[in-house]
What we know:
Layout lengths: L1 H25 L6 H8 L3 H5 L5 H26 L3 H25 L1 H4 L3 H29 L7 H19 L3 H8 L3 H10 L5
Amino acid sequence: MLEQxxxxxxxxxxILSTAKTLFAQHGLKKTTMEDxxxxxxxxxxxxxxxxxxxxxxxxxxxEEELKNLLRLTKQAINVAMTGKDKLKAYxxxxxxxxxxxxxLSSVVYEDIFNHIGVVLKLKQKHDETQIDLIxxxxxxxxxTGEFKKLEERDIELFSFTLVAAFRGIELPLTASSFVRxxxxxxxxxxxxxxxxxxx
Length: 199
C-alpha cells in the first residue's frame, strides 16, 4: 500500500515537471496530453489516471510553483533576525523567485486568461498565506519595540498594503522592472515603508 502511494507521488511529480517544461516551451494551448505522455514515455491513458485533463495539470503546476515560492520565502524569513530584515528577506526572495516564474508565465500569459477563474482562486489562497506571514512579522516587531505600537486593525491594513505593494514589484511591468533592476530595489522599498512604523 505504502509502496503504491510512493509510486503515485513520484509519478505525479514526474508529470508536473514534464508538463511545466512543455508549458514553458510551447504554451498551454499548444501543449497536448499526448505531448506530455510522449515526453514521459508513457501512454496517454496513464495520465488520465492521475489528472482529468491538461487544465487540471496546469492548475497543479501553478499551485506547485506557489508552494515552492512560499517554502523559499519562509526559509529566508526564518534566517533573518529583525522585523525589518524579515520584510527584506520576504521581498528579496519573492522578487528573485518570481523572476524565474515569469519565464513560465510569460509563455502562457495569453492562455491564463482562458483559465482566469482557476488562477485567481489559487492566487487568493496564496495571498492569504502571504498576509498571514507579514502579519506575524509586524506583530513580532511591535512586541519587541522595533515597530511602534499598532492596533490590530492597523496591522491588518498594513499587512494587506505590504502584500499588494510587493505583488506590484513582481508584475512584468516597466515600473516594477525598474524597482527589481534598481540596486537593492526591494530593500529600498522596505526601508521606505518601515520608516513609517519604527518604534
